Structure formats: structure tokens, C-alpha cells
TrEMBL record:
Pfam families: Dockerin_1. This is Dockerin type I domain-containing protein. SUPFAM superfamilies: Integrin alpha N-terminal domain, Type I dockerin domain. Residues 204-225 are annotated as: Disordered. GO terms for biological process: polysaccharide catabolic process. One of its GO terms (molecular function) is hydrolase activity, hydrolyzing O-glycosyl compounds.
Amino acid sequence: MAFIGGAGTDEIVGPNAATDWQISQKNQGQVRGLNFEQVENLTGGTKVDTFEFLTNGSLSGKIEGLAGADILDFTALGAQDVRLSDIGSVDGFDGTTVGGTIGMGFANINAIAGSTSATTDKLTGIDATALWTIDSQTPSFTYQAKSRTLVFSNFEELTGGSKVDKFDVKATSFAMILNGEGDDDFFNFHSGDLDNYQGKVTIHGGADDNGQPDQRDRIYLDDQGGDNGEERFDYRLEPHSVTWLQTNFAPDRTFAGVYFDETMEFVRLDGTDGVNRFSVRPSEFTVFYVDGNEPGVEDCPPGGGDFLELDLAPLPPVDLNPVTGPKITFTEIVNGRQTKGVWTFDAPHKEVQFESIERFNLLDKLTVSDDAGFNSLPLIDVISPTTLTKYSDVVTNFSSEPLEAFSIFDYPVFQPGAMPASLERLDVNNDGMVSPKDLQILLDHLDEQPGQYDPRLDANRDGSVNVIDISSFLSAIIIEANKNHVVGGVRTTTADLNCDGLDEIIAVSGANLAPRIQVFNGVNGEPMSISQTIGDPSNTYGVYVSAGDFDGDGMVEIATSMERGSQAVTIWKWVDDHFEKVRSFDSGFDPNASGGVRVSTGDLNGDLTDEIIVSTGTGRNPGVSIFSGAGALLGVVQVDAAYGRGGITTTTGDLDGDGYDEILILAGRRGGSLLSYVPGSANIPANSTAILLGALYTGDDALSPLSGVTKDADGDGDDELFIGQLSDGRSSIVRKLEWNDAIDQFFDDGFFETDDEWTGDFLG
């Protein structure tokens, strides 16, 4: 038996029972064992009706589901474009198909299955607030709007309506496109494990009713739970994507990435409970928010805590303006650690917000201190390597022996405007300064009784002028003099000792001083420790210092050495408010030579543990050795004999962004201002020869010893080299050099001028 329609629009109405309809050709098919032809419209009953389209099936009319959980099945067809128009009059949804599968659309449908052979099926929601649930593991795909629910499957592109759409994405096993269209749409990837998203997801936020970008289309990605636990991952957030970076300490991931366009205003990523790195390139359209989660802010965890690394490489079509100063604002401080806040940038780039982040790049401090000489000042200039502008001064209290034996008549006067407030009472002759003249007046009035002298002459306020007042006078001046009297200068390095994300300033004493060390806060420059003796007080030739993670625990240690009198390198660990000695080892240079050694540190082989680079001090043939943090000799570097015996200094930095630090070798006194380098690599060779790059200065300037340090000043992942001249330097200019790895040479990329009263610029 068959139903054969004729001219006009024919319809078959099914029974009130579960019914399977098969549409095999245009307006042709079978229902409950009966064939039909030339029937344009199909209407189900009050139970479940399944309308299955076979390979060539289509209808020129309409499908009416009526009551029951009715289904459209397009699995045997090619890609479908299904658009919902409203909720059905009975239940389910009404809609249409683009391309003629159902010519007049459908009504009261509760479930739709797309093509299983195609990968571009599209489903569009109605103009109403809606919730899309996407879970390819269960699997479960639903669309909810106006208290109705549509179950769907095999659709790769989902599009919301003109109102708020929330896409609740729990897992994806195939590539998907999600379109928010109008209003403020929310794309929520909250399974707790990004590895659940094995299909690439592309998102378009859409525009509002006026065709303008929405105010708050947003994406949330949660990687805190699942199978990740304490895993360490590197995340990459770029203007159009969130992906992951392969590392040598974390397992590979199946996360295929989330990609979006300029209509997305906000993207948040919550990392695992491990120690993670968030590499973020700011966007012109999207505000990024990263949350490091655990480890807790009360700890200084192995690995140093979650790391926010901003990538400020130029972004087409507009170059990103450099950070014009410290544009980071902390909004929350927990247990003394600043872990929540926001980075802002010059227009047009959007801010980067952060929470539970313990470490940051682009907060590097370039410290410049007066290196040596009897008249060296106890100051450290703190410079932004990004803008080459001065942040602040830090005053150390290193000094030589107290100045009791220093004649007041030889000491410079405290001039008007520069006189410490504590000495104002000692200006007994009212000339606006404290000078030997005031002391002479005291001497002239010795032993005078009350009423016979100016009260200011009674320095100790005991009712008479006597020798005790002379002593008090001298003591007050000596105290102030000691604050400004350093005979050997200061040398520095920077490192984050307390896990607050900001480097502290670690200062050691220069020549003519007992070996001492002191730490200053990286935020306000205030002392964080007393001045601590770290060696034989009789060795007054000066200390060298460098910081690094020598044992791979994520904590910062420091290495120190002496300019003369010792070949030892000593490792120290910061504990509370002081340094404790971990170990010492001999650097192995000529044991009969009196010269000392100098230290620097860097990760030469990319294993996340720093090596210690030891170079010869004055009076020795030039040489460089590489040691592990445990003191094991890893390699020896041959240095050009032209460096001479004036000592050499080294610094390290990743010049080409390959993950391996290079060693930079700088000439000492009368070394011709030579610069050489040793490329970093995965394997540290037992023997290598430094590559000579040439002289950095000419003429008399080439006679002065050099100091250098590297910083990633522009956030592009490549370190820049900053060069200054040490004691008896002819130049007060610190040069910024950029590496060109195409020709293996440096070129000048800026400079700043230090205090021309300084006798040498030590860079740290």
C-alpha cells in the first residue's frame, strides 16, 4: 500500500504513537511500512516522531512534530545549516534549513542530529537568552531557551541569537566554531582540565543590536582540576588564541587550543595548582586575566611560584608602545606578597589582569653603583632598563673604619641646604653651616658656666661647656660623615629573594672595605637586612656577587667571591632576614697567584638550573671556568691573551631567545675594552674558546675596565646588554646594546648618563 499525492500540497498525519519516518527522495519515503510519494508535508502525533532523511531525502513542504520528543535526523545527508526561529506552539522549537532539505521549515522539534559525514554542520539559536551545553565525552549537547530544551548532535558550528548566549563547554572531541552574535555572550570552559578540549574551538563574540562590538563578550578557561593536579604547564595567550607551550618538565597535552577574533573583549585563564608560566602578548581588543591559583601565597614554593611573562614584541598592524615606566598596579597584598593586580599599556593595547601570580618579567631593575675609589659614594641608582630612566636611589651604609681619627678641620663643611637636621643645633655661629669655625667657638668657651655662653654650645645639655660637649659635637658630625663616607664603593646584583615577584637589590662592599652584604627592598629601597659580614674582615679587596637557582629548587641562592686573596666561591641562601652559608669550593686557578676571582651566573644549557661562571681577577692571565652549583667543574673557556692581566668580568643572558644563556666576557683594566662571547647550548663543552667580538671603546676610554649586565628590556624574549666602565672609567655613559643574531654582533640601542661624580659604574 502507498500514499501518492498529486497536485498542490499534500500531507500525511501520523498516529499518536512512536513513529519512524524515512524520507528517501524528494517528497518520497516510508512511514510505518507504508510508502509515500509526492507528499510535501509530514505531521507527527503526540508521541515520539523521528524524521530520518536518507542520502537523497528532502521535503518541499513542512515537518510538524506536535507533542512528544520529536527528532530530525540528518545523519545520512551532507552538511546542514539549521536555523531555529522560535519555540514551538506545543513544545520544542520551530525553524528552517538552509539549502532546501525542508523547504517550508519545521515546528515543535525537540532533537536534531546533523550529518555524520560532513564537518561543517551549523545550528543557530533563537533571539533569546540561551544556554548551550557541549560535552563530547558523555556525550551531551543541548540548547535551552525560553524554558525549552533542544538536544542536538553532529553540529560543528553553533550560533547564538541577538540576546545573551552562554556556551557551557565541558569537552570537545572535534573542531568547533562558536558564534555569540549579539549581546554579551559567555564561553565557559570549566571542566577543570584543558585536555578535555581535544578539538580546536574557534569563537566569534559578535556585535550588539547597533552593529557595534559588545561590551563584555568573554571566555573563561579553567585548568585547575582534572588529571592535572600539581602539574606545571606553560600557557600562551595571544591576541587571537589561548594555547600551550611544550616544556621539558611537563607532559604533552591534548588541548587543541581556543581561538577568537577581535570581538572578544575578555579572556580569563585559571592555571593548575602547579607552578605555571603564563606567556601573554597584550591585545588591542581583548583584556586578559590570568589566575595562577595554588601554590598558596603563604609559601615560597619550588619553582618560585606562578610566572606572568609579558611579550611586548611588535604586533601588526600597530607596533606596541613600550612600557613607559612601572605600569603595574598591585591591588592585593597577602602575607607581604603582591600577587594580584593589573598591567596597563599605552593605547591601543588592553590591560592584562592577574591573580595569584608570584613572579613577573618586565620588572627588571638595572642597578648602577659607584664602583671604587676613596671618594666613592654609597649610592645605588635604580634604572628602568625599558625606558632608561631613573626610578630611585638606594643608600647603603657600608663604611670603612669609623672616622674618629678623621680631623674635623680636614672634613668638608656641611653647606646650607645640605646640612642634616640633626646638625642644625651645632651651627653655633649662625652662618647656616656646620664647620670647623663652630668647633673653634666651642674650644674658646671651654669651662664657661651657665649664663656665660650661648646655650647651643652645651652640646650634651649638662649645664656647662666642657670637653664632653666637644666630644658630642665631633660624634654628631662623625655619625653624619659615616653615612656619606664609603672608601670602596658598592657592587650589586638583583634577585627575588622573598617571592613577592619583584627583585630585591643585593649589595656587597667594594675595595678597602671588609666583605659585607646587605639586601634592600625591591619596592621602596628600604633595608631588608643589616649589613652582614660574609668573610675575613682583614680581606678588604672587595666582593663580587651574583644570584641564581643553583640546585633547581626554584629558590634563589647567591654566589660570592673576593677580588684578591682567595680563589673560593661561596654559595649563600637567604633565610628570613640574613644569608646562611651553603658551601664553598675552590675555583681551581693558579694557587700561587694572589689575585682573586669574579663570579656571574646563568642557565647555560636550558635545564632550569643556573651554572656559576668564574673568571680571573687582576694579576692573572685571563681565564673563565664553568661550575655547577655543587662546585663541580663543567667546562673551561679559553680567552684571548689580548685581555691581559687586568682581570675580566662576565655576565650571562639569552641573546637570541633560544632558551640558553650566552656567556659575555668583558675586559678589565688596560684590556682594550674587549668583548667576547660563548654561545649557550644544551650541552656545556668541557673545553671551548670565546668568540672575540672586538673593542667597545677606543683611545683612552679603552683603558678602563668594563662592567656589564643583561636584561630583557623590551619583553621580546631576547636579552639586551648594558655596558658601563668600572673604577677610573673615562665615561659616565651606560650603553644599551642589542644583539643581531644574523651577523653575531651587537649594535647600540640607547644610553643613559650616570652621576659624573662617580669614579666607576658597576652594573647589576
